[in-house]
Amino acid sequence: MMRLVVAILALFAVPVLAQSSMPPAPYAYTQLEDPALEAQAAELMGTLRCLKCQSQSINDSDAPMAGDMRHQVRSRLLAGESPDEIRSWLTARYGDYVSYEPQVSSTTWPLFAIPALLLIVVALILLRRLGKRRSDGEVAE
């Protein structure tokens, strides 16, 4: 009975040990040797959201997923891809949420349209109330 319990516990411990022993990606914490490329990488990484932290850019996050994303950005820059191509690839892979600068598309248009509609509604309400007060004030005189 005791062997069975130990075997079951060992089965549960294996995935935990495997995750903690994974080394970080090579460019996760290592800057590029070319200062111009590293500046491009830093600028791009500052505009990409960490999918685990959700409130930090991948440049600021210590999450393993952010490290993997930093590695992808740096290695793709080294391969000759432009920052726009890398952003497009990450957006295609992780969705529009990964970018702090979303593009207008069929899924993101409400982000841009709803604030404008709310401003129009508020302006109409204010104009109507102010117009009503002016007309009430003229009638009273």
Radius of gyration: 26 Å
Portion in beta strands: under 5%
Q: How far is the N terminus from the C terminus?
A: 97 Å
pLDDT averaged over residues: 84
Poorly predicted regions are none
Instruction: Write down the overall geometry.
Output: flat
- Classification by helices and strands: mainly alpha
- Give the % helix: 55-70%
**Count of alpha/pi helices:** 5
Write the element-wise H/E pattern from the N-terminal end onward. HHHHH
- Major sheet summary line: none
How many beta-strand runs?
0
Task: List the topology elements.
Elements: H1 2-20, H2 35-45, H3 64-78, H4 83-94, H5 109-140
Helix pairs in contact: 2-3
Question: Key terms for this structure?
Answer:
about 140 residues, mainly alpha, 5 helices, about 0% strand, flat
Task: Give an account of the 3D structure.
The protein is an all-alpha fold. Helix content is 63%, strand content 0%. The protein has helices at residues 2-20, 35-45, 64-78, 83-94, 109-140. Helix 2 crosses helix 3 (64-78). The protein is flat and about 90 Å long. The N and C termini lie far apart (97 Å). The mean pLDDT is 84.
State the gist of this model.
It is built from five helices and no strands. It is mainly alpha-helical and 141 residues long.
